[in-house]
TrEMBL record:
Signal peptide: none annotated. Residues 1-251 form the EAL domain. The lineage of its organism: Bacteria, Bacillati, Actinomycetota, Actinomycetes, Kineosporiales. This is Bifunctional diguanylate cyclase/phosphodiesterase. It comes from the Bacteria.
Length: 251
């Protein structure tokens, strides 16, 4: 573990790679945005984030790592927007620790400016939002005030209340893939997704369904009124060159 952390510490600057997974409109199939997902190039292999993000969180390295990922997305954004042929949503995952980094809000403000008409989406899990302290609320308001959109990742699986939706500036919920997995054959999954969609609509939140792998899942989501989705059915997370080609193909 210590060895992993030391290797990651020295690798943050040059050895992180950002892949992008398209988010599509379920009615038209068009790509409206991409989510940045980090990988770590180590000894010639690409290490997936679930093998190093937890250690990065515990060690505090998630702060420089998050800065590095946002910096890469800003660098890649002109090409992504040009390939899309118009404004798109660019989503970045963020950790709770980044809310306490004084450089985070200014970095987000700079990214929003660099993106122009394209939107910066900050994805965070419910664990960020249930920290019921004034600093969290103030910082989230500064982020949305700067023009970023806030998106709840893995919505519905945190051991949390949804009370934060009453007062925090949330724009998007991403329905966790555990609900999507069985939606085409389990009535209970379908009922839960219906309930999330009703709630999102009443609160004027956008919705993205995660982990769509089969056309039958997309069919049910579309019929339920879910506007957007993400998953292997449409595209896996792809290296920059590949996602640029995917975007050009449809523009
Ligand atoms: O790409 P993959 O599906 O393996 O991602 C696994 C997990 O790692 C997801 O929960 C995702 O949110 C998280 N993750 C990916 N990239 C980043 C990142 O840049 N920052 C943070 N904090 N988490 C990330
Ligand atoms: O927690 P977050 O939603 O940020 O995690 C994104 C993760 O989900 C990435 O690791 C990505 O590889 C994975 N992912 C994306 N689409 C699918 C899918 O259709 N099925 C499965 N099983 N995983 C997916
Ligand atoms: Mn995410
Ligand atoms: Na998720």
């Amino acid at each position: 573990r210590l060895e992993l952390i030391e290797a990651l510490r020295t690798g943050i600057r040059d050895d992180l790679v950002v892949h992008y997974q398209p988010v599509v409109n379920l009615d038209t199939g068009r790509i409206g945005g991409v989510e940045a997902l980090v990988r770590w190039r180590r000894d010639g292999a690409l290490v997936p984030p679930d093998l190093f993000i937890p250690a990065a969180e515990d060690s505090g390295l998630i702060v420089p790592l998050g800065q590095r990922v946002l910096q890469q997305v800003v660098a890649d954004s002109p090409q992504l927007v040009r390939a899309a042929g118009g404004p798109i949503d660019l989503a970045v995952n963020m950790s709770a620790h980044q809310l306490h980094d004084p450089t985070f809000v200014p970095a987000v403000r700079a990214a929003v400016e660099a993106f122009g008409d394209s939107r910066l989406v900050l994805e965070m899990t419910e664990t960020v939002l249930v920290q019921d302290d004034p600093h969290t609320a103030t910082t989230l308001e500064r982020l949305t005030g700067a023009g970023a959109r806030l998106s709840i990742d893995d919505f519905g699986v945190g051991f949390s209340s949804i009370g934060y939706l009453q007062h925090l500036p949330v724009d998007v919920v991403k329905i966790d893939r555990s609900f999507v997995r069985d939606i085409d054959h389990l009535p209970r999954s379908r009922a839960l997704v219906d309930a999330i969609l009703v709630m999102a609509s009443a609160l004027d939140l956008d919705v993205v369904a995660e982990g769509i792998e089969r056309e039958s899942q997309a069919d049910v989501l579309r019929m339920a009124g879910c506007s957007d989705g993400q998953g292997y059915l449409y595209a896996r997370p792809q290296p920059l060159a590949e996602v640029l080609a995917t975007l050009r193909d449809q523009s």
